[in-house]
Structures are given as structure tokens and as C-alpha cells.
Amino acid sequence: MADIQTATAHPAMQDPPVIYRADYQPPDWRVETVALEFDLDLSAAEVHATLALVRNGAHDRPVRLDCDGPLPQTLDLDGQPVNWRSEGHGIAFDVPTDRATVTLTTRIAPDTNTQLMGLFASNGMLCTQCEAEGFRRIIPFIDRPDNMAVYEVLLRADKRRFPVLLSNGALVESGDLEDGRHYARWHDPHPKPSYLFALVAGDLMATRDSFTTKSGQTVDLAIFVRAGDEGRTAHAMQALKASMAWDERVYGLEYDLPVFNIVAVSDFNMGAMENKGLNIFNSRYILADPDTATDYDYDAIEGVVAHEYFHNWSGNRVTCRDWFQLSLKEGFTVYRDQCFSADMGSEAVKRIEDVRMLRASQFPEDAGPLAHPIRPDSYMEISNFYTSTVYNKGAEVIRMMATMAGPERFRAGCDLYFRRHDGEAATCEDFVRAMEEGASLDLTQFRRWYEQAGTPQVQARLEHDAATGTATLHLRQNFAATPGQPVKPLMPIPLRTALIDRDMKAHRGETLVMLTEAEQSLQFEGYARAPVLSINRGFSAPVNLDVARASGDLAFLVRHDDDPFARYEALQQLVIDRLIADIAALDGPGGAEDHAVSLDEIIAVFGDLVSDQRIDDSMRAEILSLPTEAFLGEQMLVVRPEAIHAARRALRKAIGLRLLDPWRIVHERASAVPYSLSREARGARKVKSLALGYIASAEASDAAAIAFDQFARADNMTDRQGALAILASMQADERETALDSFYNRYQGNALVIDKWFSLQTGSAHPRVHEQMLELIRHKDFTLTNPNRVRALYWPFVSNQAVFHEASGRGYELLTDLVLKLDPLNPQTTARFIAPLGRWRRFDEARAGMMRGCLERILAQPGLSKDVTEQVVKSLE
Ligand code: PHE
Ligand code: ZN
């Protein structure tokens, strides 16, 4: 079993060292105020900093400043030059007094900063990214989140090339200087950690609006983008105003500055960043219009804009004491943005999407070598912990508390948390304690959700005694070992449960069952006939559930459960059981007994749902989508990529063929709905491409023609991309024609060209690998833009049958990427290790090749600590 000890034992892991949560110490010194002056240009930026230092507690230790990049050119203490010394990853010097003013200067070359951390250039503009430890790449600093200071920032630059100069807080003054330069002075009154500092300089266009808070303060809103993109900001602005109103209404939280600025940049490692009063976004989460963005993109923009806005309270006003507490702000903020999106659209569909995401990325992470608790105990590189576990499982943990407390008491817990910790750098424990007191919950056992990695396994069985009319629910919980955690204590698992009467086709009310023991049984009286068990409704707990249930009961739930998530879940389970049985049957007869529901029954259920009036189109499309190949792989002990691909393809074909007429009807009905952003129109677009997909899977002779027609006639990106995704998997002349026309139409629009790359490498076309090789050499492919790298490679590594091709050439291609990208951008590179780290789930031949690739990476001299950490853990 891998543990922390063996993790430190590997030579590659000794320097730099592993950092432990248990080692937390408050800072020896604090910075109370920061005055920064920047003389900005793309190739050289000069920084002059004045820091007011205060000794923290009675001790005689020196001042230590973290430093990663420019060493100070000058450093004065109260006006006198200081002899500082290098110490580890920083500098140190002695200070005789309890308070002192440090002035220092550094010089940076933004246009060579390919890591995109610190101050960097992107498309002729300058911007910063400081979370988690980027500020130390600008100046040496006490760069930790519990060091909160008030910032004043003076920016100077050439006025013609950088007409817009932005930083946190509000503009104090601005004006012209000599030689065509100008300046702007910004002040942020709220003390903040350095990771929330930001500046932007560039030639940008602003879309402006305003918002009046509930207490009557006017906030000037602006979204800054490159010239030419200003017609694509309306949706983001709308989302921002809706978020501001929602946080007031649902959490009672108001915005606290007179300005809120957003800037879109095209080179960005992550989605977006919540810098105080100056959010910086990956342009893909800002720019949208019907011609270039899909409905899915619109939703993602709304969600990310809300997420960053909500951080103003859950993250900025109350920040994290140290980076082990990351989920304090991220899990909570994801939960908040999920609830916001549910309120803006469909709660049921949002929940299904979020659970699908969780299962697709977090469950595998939690079952593999990189598994960690939502509050990790150690790390080597904090950038590696911006994970689906910290974010999405973190959100599930908050959601469970909300479920247990109910809305009013949950709100009371949040109120207490914000009131008690406003202006502080807090811990996850602080949140739990506020929730315990404010919501009157006992969370003693619940704290284990912060400590334990791994997805709990829950078994459920309903027993019925006709003589007494008693239904007994038997529950049991189990845990698999995860790295460093071989045995696990029991967890409290909240399971929303209902027993559905077979005759009434309804239940008598839902119960929240708390599973706290290894095994538990609950009795329900008054059931003459055995009811059908509906459990973990709404996915109330992030667990793997194994319910002993007849396939007929699943079909009953698909038709009659009143919880939309449970209906979805029941149909997914039916399909998974069928496919797993089909995969076993590929080995020939005599395999395991086939208890799965028949193909006829699946087709019958699908047939009902295609035209079921009780569900809207958006839900219909959700429910009638088959589980992905990767998800099916997760259900197997040893993943069999070819067998999964073949079985799933055959099922799709059968569903397509036998329901061909209904699919055609749906496609025609939905095609008649004109474009708008209404829920009905969006639902229609979703089922339209779903139906088209099944028509194509049926290999109908006119499928390519119908797809091309949808593509060519589309007046919006959702329909155009939906059709092109289907064409991209077909072997038809229309495929090439459509791909070329799409490329030519959108040449120069990076975000749409990203789609063009992704559609090809994520397709089910037999020659994806060869296409991949061509695209790597395409003139529009570049390693310096993270969006483009992800657009090309992520769909490829997620394309299970292609990436895991038996030859192993998929693994080699990814390894080549890692070795080329790591010297440029370690943070983005490290995210590509996990797919190779899943080697334990594959047969010996594949596992050997995958390990070989990891070893080839580790042998690379000068490998970043980001990649080293992930590779070493993956090999253990
Ligand atoms: N804090 C950002 C968010 O979740 C994510 C982020 C992390 C962005 C690190 C950049 C760098 O909203
Ligand atoms: Zn966040």
C-alpha cells in the first residue's frame, strides 16, 4: 500500500519537499500594507514595492520572503540597503525592530512567461494570475493566504498600446505622463491575501452596465475583451447581474465595492479567477453569441461567472488559512453555483449533469493513485490539488450538510459562518463548527468526509413480509483502501429514500435515512404488497450504490418514480446491466447468468420516453443518452475497451433502428422550433441532435444527408456542432465537406477552432489516430495556448477505445505531449498524467505499456515538480 512515507522516499520527491497540513504555523511576520508601482511593457516590467512589515508574536526569527523568479534588484529596510540571503525558495534577512518598511524592486519579462503564472503577456495584453503561488513570481513576498494586506497599485504604461490599466478595488486617479505614457492608481480597501491580487493592461473594449445592491449602492460593472469580441459579452453580463441578485436573495450577501470588472484572456490555465473586484476569465467562459457558442457553452458561462462572483464572499471576504483548506472556498462555491444554475434553469437536469460530471472525473480519481481527501493532508505542488475531489466532491459534502439541515437551518449555519469569520482566513473546521452551531447539527462523525478519500460503497436490499405488511430496508457500507488510508472508519451517509406502492404508483412521503453504522436495518409498516425501493434520490450522498433490485423494478421506477434523478438513474442502471451482460456474452456462451433486462424491454422503455408528455425535451435528451464508454469501463474490474465499444455501439444501433420512426418524428418536430434561448427551444435543440445521433447509429441510408442538412441549415452553433459531431464519426463524403466548411467559416475565431479540433479527436471515426497525427502538425496547433492543447488532446485521451488502442500508440502520443509541454507549462501538463495513472484498471499488456510511459516521463531531466508528483504517485 502506498503511503506518505513511500511518497517521500522516492529521490525525485525529496526536493522540493512534501508539505504537511499538520505542520501549519502562523506566519512569523505579516505585511499590513502593500504599495506597488508597475512600469509595464510586454518584454520588460519593472516593479517597485513598499511593504509594511509587522512582527507576529514574540520571537527573534528573520523575515522570510517567498520568491520564485525575479530576485530583488534592490532591497531597503527603513531606507537602508539590506544584505539579504537566499534561503530555500526565498530570501531572508534580519529585522531588529517589530515594525519596518521594506522597499524592493524587481524586473520581469512577461512575454517569456509561458507558465502563465505571475505576470504574463497574452495577445498583446498583460495580466496576472496569482493563485495559488504566483505572486512570488512578481515580487518576493510572504505569499500565503493567511497574510492579508491592503493594496494600493500604481500602473504606468504606453497609452496607445495599453489604454486600459486595471487592478483590484476602485480607481483613485489616472492621467497622462510624458512620452505617450499614462498612469492609473487603484486602491482596494479590503485586506486580502496576495493570491487575490491582479492587474491588467491592454487595448481592450468594455461592455458596461450597473447593478444596485439591496442597500442601494450602485456598482459599475464592466467586461473587458479584445476589440472585435465586444458583441459576445451580453450573456456573461446578464449572468453577472443575475448572480449578484441571487446571492442577495438566497444568502443575504451583498457586493462590497463600487466597481466589478471582468477581463477575458485567451491564454489561461484554468477557467477563471476571482481576484477581488477584478475577475480574470479564460475567454471561453465569457464570449458567446448564437453563431459561435452552444447552449452548453451558454450554461458554462453562466455557471463560471456565478462561481467567480460568489467567491467574493466564499473565498475573498472569508478566505483560506492555508492551501489544505482549499475546499473551504471551492467546494462551497461550487455548491453555490450549482444551486444558482439549478434556479436559473432546470433543477433536475442540472443535478443529472453534475452527478454525471462527478462520476466521470471524481469517482475515478477517488479510486486511483491520486485519491486524496477533500482536505488533503500533504502536497508537493499545490497546483495539483485543484481537483475534481476538492471542487466537486467538496460541493457534495456541503450539499449533504444542506440536506441534513434543511434550507432554513442551512442558511442559519452559513449566516453564522460569514458573520463569525468575515475578514478572516478560516479553516474547513471553522465552517463545520459554524454549521453545527448555526444549523443545530451534530457533525462529529460527519467530519470524516473531510478526512477520508475514496467513494463509499453502499449495499441496499428491501425485504418484504406479506404476513405482517412489513418492508425492511437492509443497508451496509464498505470502503476500499486508498493511498495512505488502508482502513477507514464508518461514515454518516444521508440517503433520501421512498418506498413506491406498486398499485398506487406513488409513495407516502420521503424519508432521510442516515446510514451511520456498518450495517443497519429499518422497518416500514403497512405494505400489503412489496413496494419498490427508490433510494439515494437526487443523489443525496456521493456513494456507489449497489441495490439488489429486479430489472422489472428498475423499469417500474423509470416509468413511475416522481424523483427525476431517480428515473434517470434507473434507466442508466438498466442499460448498464444490459451492456455488461452483452460484454460478457462476447466471450461466448457459458459465461455469467444473464439477469439483465432484455433488449426488447429497453427498447420499450426508450419508446415510451421518446414521446412521454410528462417530461420536457431537455430531460428527455438527458435520460435517453447512453452512458459513456469510460463510465462503463468504471463498472468493470478490468476495462475492456474494444468490447465496451462494440457492445455500446450495437445497443445504440438497435435503439436507433427499432425506434427509427419515432427518432425521425422527434427530429422533425424539434427542427421546426425556431432559435431562441427559451427553455423549450433549448430542449428542442438538445433532443434534435440526440435523435440525429440515433438515426446515424441506425446506419439509415439517408443519415449523412439529414446530418449534413442540419449542419448546413443551422442558424446557431448548437445545431451546427451537434450535426458536425455526428458527421465526424461517419465515413461519408459529407464529413469532409462539413469539417472544411466549418473550419473556413470560423478561421480566426480561436474558441470555435478549438471545437473543430475537439470534434475530430473525440469522434468514433475508425481513423481518429491518424487524424490526430495530422492535427498535431496543423498550422493552428500550438503548445503555448492551454485551450488549444486541451481541445486537441483531452477528447483524445477521453476517447477510450482510441486512447487505449491495444498497440499502445495512444499512450506514446500522450507521453510525447507531456515531455514537450512540461518545460513550457507544468501546471497544464500535470493534468494529463491521470489517464496514464489508471493502468491498474487495464489488462497486463496495456498496464505494462502505460507504466512504461510513466517511467519514460520520470526519466526526463529537469521534470517539473507538478509532473513529478503526479507520476511518482501514479507509479506507486
Ligand atoms: N480559484 C479559481 C476558481 O475556482 C481557480 C483557479 C485556480 C484559477 C488557480 C487559476 C489558478 O474559481
Ligand atoms: Zn473557485
Automatic annotation (TrEMBL):
It comes from the Bacteria. SUPFAM superfamilies: Leukotriene A4 hydrolase N-terminal domain (SSF63737), Metalloproteases ('zincins'), catalytic domain (SSF55486). CDD domains: M1_APN. InterPro entries: Aminopeptidase_N-like_N, Aminopeptidase_N-like_N_sf, PepN_Ig-like_sf, Peptidase_M1, Peptidase_M1_dom, Peptidase_M1_pepN, Peptidase_M1_pepN_C, Peptidase_M1_pepN_C_sf. Its cofactor is Zn(2+). The keyword Ribonucleoprotein does not apply. Keywords: Aminopeptidase, Hydrolase, Metal-binding, Metalloprotease, Protease, Zinc. It catalyses: Release of an N-terminal amino acid, Xaa-|-Yaa- from a peptide, amide or arylamide. Xaa is preferably Ala, but may be most amino acids including Pro (slow action). When a terminal hydrophobic residue is followed by a prolyl residue, the two may be released as an intact Xaa-Pro dipeptide. Residues 553-876 form the Peptidase M1 alanyl aminopeptidase C-terminal domain. Residues 93-196 form the Aminopeptidase N-like N-terminal domain. Gene3D superfamilies: 2.60.40.1840, 3.30.2010.30, Neutral Protease Domain 2, Peptidase M1, alanyl aminopeptidase, C-terminal domain, tricorn interacting facor f3 domain. Belongs to the peptidase M1 family. This is Aminopeptidase N.
